[in-house]
Every structure is written in C-alpha cells, then in structure tokens.
Design goal:
Shape: elongated
Number of strands: 7
Distance between the termini: 29 Å
Oligomer: single chain
Strand order of the largest sheet: 2-1-5-6-7-4-3
Length: 144
C-alpha cells in the first residue's frame, strides 16, 4: 500500500495584501482572518420536452470579509487605509486585493474590489477587531 504525505496549510499562513493608490500592494500586518466566496451563475439550457435539466456556467462574482486587529498606529497605516476605504463614494472598484493561502509561495487569489462595509466593536479587556466586507469587480484570478 502506497501512502502519500500531504501538506496542509494552517490559518497562520494566510495573509492579505491591499492597494488603492496606484502603488504596490502592501501586506496588512494586522490581518486576523479573511474569507472569500466565489459564485457562478448558471443558465438553464434544457431543450423543450427533455426529462432532465441541462445547465451552463454564467457570470462569476465574489464577496467576502477581512478581519483586522485595530492598532494604535492610526489612519496613516495600510490597515487604516483599508478600513477607511468604505468611506469612499463613487468608488471605481480599483482597489487591488491579494488573498494569500500561504506565506512563502505564490498561492493567492487576486481581484479588484470595493469595501462595502466596516464593522467596529470593542469589548473591555479584548483586542479591538474591525471586520471589512467586500465584493469583487471584474476577473478573479487564482494561483492555487
């Protein structure tokens, strides 16, 4: 019997890079977690009179969130710029996102997107966490 060893990725290996000023993407050092859901619409192509449905894939979209630990560094930091992007009106969806599955390789999901909400909260004695939700705009690429 042949056994293959598999390398699993742990949560501490994931990170987020973000850019919204036309400069290089920078790592958000305070990232606690991120999630992304990618959806594909389907189109019904069933012939009239068929007894089984047939589908083809359609448009692709995505949405997700990034959970950040709030730091005392203020709004001049990359984390502050990420959080305050939700305050941009007439947003052209030009923010560049890179969600990494590992820290040393190039396993990542990239897209342009818009920060759609930021949830702030504070609990006495706990780290302050800000959750930013986003949607993708345009092509999503994956190097996984």
């Amino acid at each position: 019997m042949l056994f293959r060893s598999m390398a699993f990725f742990r949560g501490e290996e994931g990170s987020v890079k973000f850019e919204n000023d036309g400069a290089a993407t920078v790592t958000l050092a305070s990232t606690r977690s991120w999630s992304l859901t990618i959806n594909k619409d389907t189109l019904d192509t069933t012939d009239h009179g068929s007894s089984s449905r047939k589908f083809v894939g359609g448009l692709i979209s995505g949405s997700g969130s990034v959970e950040l630990m709030y730091t005392a560094s203020g709004s001049g930091t990359e984390t502050g710029q990420f959080i305050t992007d939700v305050l941009t009106t007439q947003d052209n969806a030009n923010a560049s996102f890179e969600l990494f599955l590992d820290t040393t390789g190039g396993k990542k999901i990239s897209f342009l997107g818009i920060i759609t909400s930021a949830d702030f909260g504070a609990t006495v004695g706990e780290l302050e966490v800000v959750t930013c939700n986003f949607i993708t705009s345009g092509t999503i690429t994956a190097a996984i």
